[in-house]
Design goal:
Layout: H1 22-34, H2 38-42, H3 54-68, H4 75-78, H5 86-89, H6 95-100, H7 110-138, H8 146-163, E1 170-171, H9 173-189, H10 202-208, E2 216-221, H11 227-247, E3 258-262, H12 267-279, H13 283-288, H14 293-305, E4 311-314, H15 321-335, E5 339-343, H16 359-377, E6 381-386, H17 390-393, H18 409-413, E7 416-421, H19 423-429, H20 443-459, E8 462-470, E9 476-483, E10 488-491
Helix pairs in contact: 1-3, 1-7, 7-8, 9-12, 9-14, 11-12, 12-14, 15-16, 19-20
């Protein structure tokens, strides 16, 4: 018969008044050590500080660290980490770890235990907020400022409320598009050369040979260049090719299910972009309901055809690099994902230690973590990145590697670095005043406007993808067509392509 677990005495003096369940904490930790896969289910919501007993919080944190390193977390592997722990000594030493695993039945209720621990932690946080409100309201020793106290109470309550939404969810493409269709319907009624996975862009495939396992690809650009659009296009192309091959009974080789971690846009916004591109209806028309019935029919048909698209969108904000890796591993095991897209790198968070006031160190940890993830899962990872404002200060706006923002480690860790550049965007910013000889304008004014018109004609609906770094091949520039109305990138027609322009 298993030795009963010796439950630690609550550390707080007012323990009876604080909601807690030490037995549930002990049972969850035991279940996690018996089956490390439980970590994936509880890590997203539960943090060490949610445990009432500090020792349990430390054990939980140690389990997470070992699992994140792909090591087994058992009483044996955890024992060296707690040899000198004072709290553990009070319970008889590291043998307490083995006692926690005494009941295998705890595995069945692990999720329920985790939920209860989390809920009780929120209740304790609420009690803390209430206590501070009462103490602040009773304290008249300093200047009385009730409005300020109310604002502070609102901030504190909001922080507690925010914790309740951190778990997020992974949505299938069908789930994501449902919201888009409902929104559009309501608005309408109210008024070759691929060795890896295909990008769907022939010239890009020819240049890089497709997307290769274990590669970290940094896709960077200034705001307005269309980097999210390009990433969405590529993700769709990879997933759509996989879907078509399966429907045709062909063994998929250049397509794969795709995971898209969107830290900036919601799942339905991304789905709306894909549907806009496929139905060739502008996003503005969809949002505002400016659709004819035939356009709405085409839009709904596109959504129906793509219901089985293996594109999985996780739009949980504020993910840490460790949480992203956990979710990616789960999607790899459950959905067989072959590509990961992260939009965007600077919105990820590092560990507490690296993010403590040192942003460069934190970005370095994130870029290394993404490269490690690509190697571990043997999938290409496309991570979007912002560029520094130095680009705007130069006459030539085309980006270079030194423009990568906040850390040289991004360039170092990346296997490829792509820059999206659209001259049309910058030409629109410097449009000269329209001039003509008939209106009596000077020859200089007329010439400047005509030169600008010629440049705009050449740049209209054009984009360039600059391959600034490629470990396995040459660098260069790839011309593309970009239809901003549909946020769609495609190959530039041969009639408009002059190789000498992109040397």
């Amino acid at each position: 018969m298993a030795e009963p677990v010796r439950i630690p005495t609550p550390a707080l003096a007012d323990a009876p008044s604080m909601p807690h369940n030490i037995e549930a904490e002990a049972a969850l930790l035991g279940a996690m050590m018996l089956d490390n896969r439980i970590v994936e289910d509880v890590q997203v919501r539960l943090r060490p500080e949610h445990f009432y007993e500090p020792l349990h919080g430390r054990i939980y944190e140690a389990i997470l660290r070992l699992v994140d390193r792909n090591m087994l977390a058992t009483p044996v592997t955890l024992r060296p980490l707690f040899e000198g722990d004072a709290g553990m000594r009070e319970l008889g030493g590291p043998s307490y770890l083995a006692q926690l695993t005494g009941s295998g039945a705890a595995i069945i209720g692990a999720r329920d235990f985790a939920q209860q621990i989390y809920d009780l932690a929120l209740l304790r946080a609420l009690i803390g907020v209430g206590r501070n409100m009462v103490e602040g309201a009773l304290d008249t020793s300093e200047e009385v400022d009730p409005k300020s106290q109310i604002e502070q109470a609102e901030i504190s309550l909001y922080k507690v409320a925010e914790q309740g939404g951190e778990e997020g969810s992974v949505k299938s493409f069908a789930q994501a598009t449902k919201t888009v269709i409902e929104t559009a319907s309501a608005a309408l009624n109210s008024g070759g050369h691929v060795a890896g996975l295909t990008t769907g862009l022939e010239r890009l495939n020819a240049k890089i040979g497709g997307l290769h396992p274990s590669d970290l690809i940094i896709l960077a650009g200034r705001p307005g260049m269309g980097k999210t659009s390009l990433a969405t296009n590529i993700a769709f192309n990879v997933a759509a090719r996989y879907m078509r091959d399966q429907q045709d009974g062909i063994s998929p080789s250049v397509g794969a299910p795709c995971a898209f971690f969107s830290l900036e846009m919601s799942a339905d916004q991304l789905a709306g972009r894909v549907l806009s591109e496929q139905a060739e209806i502008s996003s503005e028309q969809i949002r505002m309901g400016k659709l004819t019935h035939s356009e709405f029919t085409a839009f709904a048909r596109a959504a129906q055809e793509l219901e089985t698209l293996p594109l999985y969108i996780d739009d949980t904000p504020g993910l840490t690099i460790a949480a992203l890796r956990t979710r990616a591993r789960r999607l790899k095991r459950q959905k067989g994902i072959g590509v990961i897209v992260v939009d965007y790198l600077q919105l990820l968070q590092g560990s507490g230690k690296s993010s403590d006031g040192n942003r460069v160190q934190e970005i370095s940890e994130i870029s290394r973590g993404l490269k490690t993830l690509a190697k571990e899962l043997s999938v290409p990872v496309i991570a979007l990145s912002q560029l520094s404002r130095a680009v705007e200060q130069r006459e030539n706006k085309k980006p270079v590697l030194s423009d990568l923002r906040e850390s040289g480690s991004i360039e170092q860790d990346a296997d490829m670095v792509w820059f999206v550049y659209r001259e049309e965007y910058y030409l629109n910013l410097i449009r000269p005043k329209e001039a003509s000889a008939a209106a009596g304008d000077s020859a200089v004014d007329v010439t400047a406007f005509e030169d600008w018109q010629l440049k705009m004609a050449r740049a209209h609906n054009r984009a360039e993808l600059v391959i600034a770094k490629q470990r396995h091949g040459s660098t260069g520039t790839i011309p593309m067509k970009f239809e901003s109305k549909f946020t769609k990138f495609s190959d530039l027609a041969d009639d408009y392509y002059n190789p000498n322009d992109y040397e």
